[in-house]
Amino acid sequence: MGLPRQQVRPRSGHDGEQGAAPRGLAWLLAATGAAGLLASWVITLDKFLLLEDPDFKPACSLNPVVSCGSVMTSEQAAAFGFPNPMMGLVGYAVVICVAAGLLAGARHRGWFWLGLNAGTLFGVGFCSWLMVQSLYEINALCLWCCLAWVATLLMFWAVTAHNVRTRVLPAPGPVRGFFTEFGWAPPALHIGVIGMLVLTRWWDFWTG
């Protein structure tokens, strides 16, 4: 009789390495990364045009509320001493590279997913600060900025849901079950809250 074959147990998050991420997650990261990169690129180009010609009017400056020029010329538009979209050019490009790797079958360890989660969390926090500044200090909206906000929060919640489901982020069973069945709910609620804030902030303008 031959020796019994040794069963090989698939490696899980507890072993330090994750299996291949769902292709849906990879495609979502690719789409949101591309959307954020496009927004950052357009804003950067318009910022340079504004520096060359102070009278330049960006195409997305449509009215007193939707006024990209007002946002681009504000102090908040260069929070770290240089135009904010330059960070987006780097950050969103990294997300696209991660998505391409996942689509090619790359497998990453837990620390990689935690790092990606931390990066997207920073992005959500920074975008939230910019949103508050736009609504209550600058008193104007930039459509390209709004696109970047939505793209960032979608990638954050997608990565968070993946990390909870694969136990990279420790969570009780009911929480893992929630993200498995209703992973769409947190980003939908998040976007809904932003939409309501924008609607109520300029309610008289929208309904006038």
Key descriptive features of the protein:
quinone, VKOR_Actinobacteria, membrane, 0% strand, mainly alpha, 208 residues, transmembrane, de novo design (two linked rop proteins), disordered N terminus
The percentage of residues in β strands lies in under 5%
Number of domain modules = 1
> What is the N-to-C order of secondary-structure elements (H for helix, E for strand)?
HHHHHHHH
> By helix and strand content, what is the structural category?
mainly alpha
Radius of gyration: 21 Å
Please estimate the helix content: 55-70%
Major sheet description: none
For the record, the CATH architecture stands as Up-down Bundle
Tell me the name of the CATH homologous superfamily.
Answer: VKOR domain
- CATH fold node name: de novo design (two linked rop proteins)
Report the principal-axis shape.
globular
CATH class: Mainly Alpha
Uncertain segments: 1-16
The number of distinct β-strands equals 0
Distance between the termini: 87 Å
Mean pLDDT: 90
Helical run tally = 8
Overview of the molecule:
With 208 residues, this protein is mostly helical. It has one domain: VKOR domain (de novo design (two linked rop proteins), Up-down Bundle). It has helices spanning 23-52, 68-72, 85-103, 110-138, 143-165, 173-181, 185-201, 203-207. Residues 1-16 have low confidence and may be disordered.
SSE arrangement:
Elements: H1 23-52, H2 68-72, H3 85-103, H4 110-138, H5 143-165, H6 173-181, H7 185-201, H8 203-207
Helix pairs in contact: 1-3, 1-5, 4-5, 5-6, 5-7
